[in-house]
Amino acid sequence: MAKILYLVVPCYNEEEALPKSAPVFFAKVEELIKKGKISDKSKILFVDDGSKDKTWTVIEDLHKQNPIFTGLKLSRNCGHQRALFAGLMFAKDKCNFSISIDADLQDDINAIDGFISEYNKGSEIVFGVRSKRETDTIFKRNTALLFYKLMEFMGVNIIYNHADYRLMSKRALEALSEHKESNLFLRAIVAQLGFKTASVYYERSKRIEGETKYPLKKMLAFAFDGITSFSIYPIRFISCLGFFIAVLSSLMFVYVFIAKILGNVPVPGYASLICSIWLLGGLQLLSIGVIGEYIGKTYLETKQRPRYIIEKTLE
Ligand code: UDP
Ligand code: MG
Q1: N or C: which end of the chain has fewer CB within 10 A?
Q2: Is the pLDDT confidence value at 235 over 90?
Q3: Are 241 and 287 in contact (CB under 8 A)?
Q4: Does the C-beta of 205 come closer than 6 Å to ligand 1?
Q5: Residue 106 CB less than 6 A away from ligand 1
C-alpha cells in the first residue's frame, strides 16, 4: 500500500512566498499520488510560526480550496527549529514519513523523488545536501563553511551543507520525539539518531519571494546554540587555557626567584605589567561568560517549559 507523506513547511511572515510556493508543493505531491508513489491521504502541512502578516489567512484559504493543504498555527513566534519540530510532531501519528522543506522554494522540490526512492530502499532518514549554493551571498556561504568546520572541530556530528530539507520515517520521528530538550538544533539531533540514512544532492536556488527570515543576528544565535547544546569544548578550552597560564606563571616565578637570589632583579617593567593585567582580566571575564552561558542553558532546560503552543489547527 502506498505510504502517507506529510510535507512539513514552517512559515514565518511568508504571505508573499506562499501563494507562489504552495502550487509548486501541490503539483509535486499530486504527481507523486498519481504515480502511486504516495497515498492520496498525503498532506501539505504549513506551520505558521506566529507570523505578523497574513500568512495564516493565506493558509486558511489554501485549505478551503483544497483540504490537501492543512495548517498549524503556533501561538507566537518560536523560531524555525521549534516550528518545524511542532509540525513534525503533529505529523508523526498521521503519516508514514515526513519531508521538511522551507516555504521559499530555495530547496529543489524535485529532490523529493530521490528522497522517496532512498526511503523505499530502507533508509529511515534521507538528508538533502546542497551540492552548490552559488545563489547565496559570499558572506553567507563562507560563514556557513566556517560554522560547519567549527562544529566538526568541536566534535559535533553534523552533515556538511545539509540544512533542514530531509525525509524522516515514522520511526525516526518517534525517536526524535524522545528528545526533551527545549533548545532544539535539529540537524545535529537528527544526525545522531542512528538508523539507516542516505543523502540526496541538489542545487540551492534563490528565495522565490520576500526577504530572508534569518538575519545575521538570528544566524549567529543559531550557530551559538548549535555549538553550546552539542559540545562542551568551549568549557574544556577554558580549563586548558587556565592550565597553560598557570604553568607559564610558575615558570616565571622560578625565573624571578632565581634572578632575585643572584641579585640581578630586572627593572620592573610598567608596560608588561599592565599588559598582563589586562590580558588576564579579559581572559577571566571571557571564561566566566562561557561558563555562565552553559549554566544559563542548564537553567532554561530545567524549567521544562513547552517548546511551542498550538493555537489552531485546520484538521
Ligand atoms: N522560519 C520560521 N520561523 C522563524 C524564521 C524562519 O518558521 O522565526 C521559516 C521561514 O518561513 C522559512 C524557513 O524557516 O520557511 C527558512 O527561513 P529563511 O528562508 O528565511 O532562511 P534562509 O534560507 O535565508 O537561511
Ligand atoms: Mg530560505
Answers
A1: N
A2: no
A3: yes
A4: no
A5: yes
